[in-house]
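Limitations

Structures in this collection are predictions, not experimental determinations, and the ligand pose is part of the prediction. Treat each record accordingly. The example that follows, with arginine as the small molecule, is included so readers can see exactly what is and is not provided: the inputs are given verbatim, and the output is the predicted complex.
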Amino acid sequence: MKKLSLALLLTVLATTPIFADKGMWLLQLMRQQNLEDNMRKLGLQISADEIYSPDAPSLKDAIGIFGGGCTGEVISPNGLVVTNHHCGFGFIQQLSTVEHNYLQNGFWSQSNEEELPCNGIGFTFVVKITDVTDEINARIANGKISEEQSFNRNELAKIGKELFDADNIEGKEYMHPQLLPYFEANKYYLVYYKRYTDVRLVGTPPFAIGKFGGETDNWMWPRHTGDFSMFRIYGDKNGNPAAYSKDNVPLKTPKHLKISLEGFSYGDYAMIMGFPGSTSRYLTADEVKQRMYHKNEPRIAMRDLSLKVIREEMEKSEDTNIKYASKLARISNYWKNSIGMNKAIIDNKVIETKLQEEAGFKAWAKSIGNSDYENVVEKINACVEEMNRTQYLTTLTGELVGNVEFFARNLSDGNKNLFDAPEKINERMKSIYASLHDRDYVHSIDRRIAKEVLPLYFELTKPEERDAYLNEVEKKYKGKLSKYIDEVYDNSILANEKNLNKFLKKPTLKKLESDPAYKLRSAIIASQRELSKKNSEFAKRMNPLHKTYLKGLMQKAGNDPMAPDANSTMRLTYGTVKSYEPKDGVTYNHYTTLKGVMQKENPNSSEFIVPARLKELYEKKEYGDYAMPDGEMPVAFLTTNDITGGNSGSGVLNSRGELIGLAFDGNWESLSGDINFDNIKQRCINVDIRYVLFIVEKFGNCKRLIDEMTIVK
Ligand code: ARG
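Predicted complex:
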């Protein structure tokens, strides 16, 4: 008995990481922070230089920013890129029509010629990273910039541009710089990027695989989503970025990821490199409460209403289903995240933990006799208290335009300048009209959303917090806001082409200024301007306090490495493959299989449809080279990696740096993770690369893509 428990203890010690997996680490600090040792203890077999090297090809050269805010990786010598389905979603939707519904049916190009160019897409590589902290501090010291300017994004961008201009790095015409503060402006890095804009859709599974589980399963485990899509980067003949042209050629990158079909065992090393968007790990307890009650709560309330309308309308027709698919996913994603985060903050005792940490920090500050540190949390909290209502109103107003397109993209006093060039009014008005009434806009649905969302805005705000025009509206239409909205949606200039043409027959400034939608949009903009002024006043007080707090925390941490909050720059997270216990008595397995897809099938729910072909492959067990040793087809798996939004699409790499999966989500029980990483329950949800390749080859019949990859068996 005793012997057994000792053996057990030893295995537990060998498989349980001793080190916290928390940390979105900066590649450029990997050596300095001595992370390689920790990684090696967890199983890493390659050197830190192979992961990131400032002057030789390394894994980081195969990884880039996909689209606006996701990660993608190059997986062939011909610029083939894999990312999540939900990252490609907007582009796939753009290319879809009722006749060619790629969203619904999937798309598999059978040659490079069949690949589809996408509007507004991009793939961005990191070229160079420089520590410019001393440079910025010198500029503060010699008065070239003020302390206040040292936090200002525009000011920093100007300096970044200046330093970039002075650099004579080769190929500069294809690069752009970005200078950002890190560790609350205790550090600054200048990053050069290279962005390719000719990126084409190569293949995507149908919705029923790529988004299997839909909004119901989103942010949840166990998961069965084949969340991937494939694109290809094209460049000019010299491999440089170029606008779309049929003369462009597939890009050859210095590095592409190898793919492993070996899979993983429990406890295996796993690392992820990608571009996490934003975390807030250094908030005070009061700031966490602000996030809960003045940001998440009003956001949830507004989106509850718009989502109800969108869901109802999407049920009604396939056309609406395509048009609103992307909007539903966008609005629902952080609606659900906000609900889960508020719950997890309570369940995981985040406030209590923060308060304890704050007490510990204060005691330490006192012990070293640093009164700046000692009082900084109180100072932050005093500011938070004053800021709460402004934060609440900022969220509400943002949600107003975030949910109602007719409010967001209408005319406003900013358009008075139309009359500066009367000969162009026709053309410019038509283009404003066209960008509002884009392919996916449905006036009647937007009107329904407005009728839900605007009354709630009135309910949750006080007259003195609103623009004068909105108070006029309230007085005039008390209890009949729906009538007001009908007037706006029926009578304003951009409501329909008839109104637009009527206006264009004899356009006058007076008519423009008396337009109800113009007035409403101008009022919303005025409120936002007011709020943003207040917010930047608060930021002026908060920035130096946060800088001090973080400086103190770093000093207190001593040699323990710390990672700065995510800011959409490249990060590395390392951990292991691991299960978790969502609640007492329940353990979740660390992976799922195709069996689970079949178990979840529900022909009555659009989120749980299983394509006939997938069932056939499942029944015949036609899995090619991709099944696990026990003959099952893996679908998704869990790791302890520390990721957040922006990491979506990031490759999960094994101890040899080979691709074994793609990160695509986080788990419900730890949605407080952006604020406080929870080492016990927080997991990263990944789609298994074997499932990806199985779908490509067996379901999509697109073997040509497998043939160009470098696969290690
Ligand atoms: N929660 C995931 C993320 O934020 C997936 C989002 C898209 N999926 C969805 N069902 N809305 O990356």
